[in-house]
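Morning. Coffee machine broken again, so started the prediction first thing and wrote up yesterday's gels while waiting. Chain of 118 residues, entered below exactly as on the submission form.
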Amino acid sequence: MSETDFAAFAPKDSGDRTVMHILYGMHTVAWASLGTLAVIALIINYIKRGDETDPLYEDHHSYMISTFWWTILWLIVTSPLYLLFVLPGVIAHGIVGLWYLYRCIKGWLRFTGNRPAR
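Came back before lunch.
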């Protein structure tokens, strides 16, 4: 199975790169808005991914979308820990939050280096 050479594609204009950086930024600081920025960025990710022709950008949109939905899943799965006592739930949600932050920063750095998200 051959891998796509993302460097072979013509670079996008600076406006497209700026939008991608803004989306990564919105996902990264979403905790400060209690997730509102992540939901807005998710909607834009879906819209932009549908119009995307560059595989690198499409990959990063998909990466942000999957990161969001996996985070939601893990937040739901770990929510019953609050029934035991508050501390296990807080710890579990803290770990999920750190994982989300890690994925956002990792993807953002890979995008900055013109590399695929995964």
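Residues 13-112 form one domain. Going to sketch it on the whiteboard this afternoon.
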